[in-house]
Amino acid sequence: MLPSSIATPPSSPTLSGPPQAHLALLETAAIVPEPGSINAILREHNRSRLFVHPIAWTMEQPRLLSCRFGARKLHWHPPGLDDDESVAGKQNAKLRQERIELARQQQNFNSIATSAADLPRLSPVLAFSFGGRAVRLRTDGIFALGSTDCFLAYLYLDTVDSLRRLYVYGRPYERPNEPMMSLKEKKLGSLQPLNAVEDPYIMATLIALAQEQRRQIQETTVSESSDASSKVPDSFKVPQGPDTSLILKVALLVITVAPARVLYAYKAVIPTAFLDKFESLARCTSSGQIKVSYSKLRIGNPEGLIDRLPWALGLSHEQCQSVAKE
Q: In a 3-state reduction of DSSP, which class is residue 137?
């Protein structure tokens, strides 16, 4: 059963759910799982707690699914802008200037968010499908970029932190006694990623975003006999080899702190063969490694941000203008 609201502590399965649901899922498998399938992975690592809500994922789940993050450096910088600039060690006068600049950056980000509000906006909750079941993943917004088949999501890391705390501690009125609190603090610490911008929840969100994009494509082509790939906008198509399976592009913007100073732009290409693994748990479909690349973007210069977003997100310049225009 799914949570009744996005504020409810997540507890449903997707490589997720209670151990009892995990065992029931394996027992109902009609065939022996193929090596490399999700059921085979769960059986092989039955002593590890893999069958949990994505908010409780560690880097183990992405690794076993052959998913990885890869940082990318933007080689072009607007004049006077340096992504590697650090505040540490600045003189007091420069620190004061930084505070003024920070206020201006926040105003610019608010302008970006306001312009994004004009785009067709979808529910901020994604359905992560797994073996015919679904669990809800919360984002801070999902926008349609020119077509219902194309989505851009954004997410605050503060939101991820709040969801993870809610998952571990429960609601305030459900807080346990001191000994239990100590255990829960230890559990929360074990779930914190070493690198916040490579949070496994980000990986799960991108997978769920690809699943949602695929559902939208299927819905728009349900009455047509043409191949679903012909319905994907040209800007979201990837040249394909002999394998004719559809390949989807997904994009995500992550805001690290509030007030926001830096955006992280994530992009990935996810073949439907990879998504099939979550529908047919006993089958191993060849999809190769899924790489999620991400880049750091400062938002102090909205004009420069517009020029850099297309490369960082893998979107068309027109789509990025609709999101990042001043």
A: strand
